[in-house]
Amino acid sequence: MVLSCIDPRFQHIVHNHLQKKKLIGKYSAFTIAGAAVGVTHNKFKQWHKTFYDNLATSIKLHKIEKLIVINHKDCGAAKIAYGKKEFTPANEKKIHNDSFSKIKKQIKKRFPKLKVELNLISLDSKITKF
Fold first, then answer.
1. Which residues contact 91 (CB under 8 A, 6 or more apart)?
2. How far is it, in rounded angstroms, from Cα 3 to Cα 32?
3. Beta strands in 1-130 (DSSP E)
4. 39 and which of 16, 32, 51, 114 could share a cystine (Cβ 3.0–4.6 Å)?
């Protein structure tokens, strides 16, 4: 399964990344504002159950063995999660790191056999694995 953000600026980058990995037609997609931020941060708490219910269904129906998470920089959901304080690159890094840490921990607890791959897209379209 691939968890990615709704931001239209990054859809082609996600697609190209998955194409390079030869995954087109081989994954379930869950696209939500903020990707891991949207399914871990308390500002979006109502979304969390939907994601985990969907993931459980995808595992059951499609025998999913890996969750590929793709967050991106300059994320509007990360800004909402951070609140009214100044949003700096350091704050943004912390929000992404926190979301990655939380999702990895929650996946391990709920789906111990599921592998997790964490990625962050920069504004110059480079994808970094965490």
1. 82, 85
2. 8
3. 2-4, 29-31, 66-72, 115-121, 127-129
4. 51
Residue with tokens 């030869």: 22
Query: How far is Cα 5 from Cα 35, in angstroms, rounded to an integer?
Result: 5
Q: What is d(CA 42, CA 37) in angstroms, rounded to the nearest whole number? A: 9
Distance CA 24, CA 38 (A): 24
- The answer to whether the beta carbons of residues 37 and 99 sit under 8 Å apart is yes
Query: What is the token pair recorded at 16?
Result: 């190209």
pLDDT tens, residue by residue, 33-91: 999 999 999 999 999 999 999 999 999 999 999 999 999 999 999 999 988 778 888 99
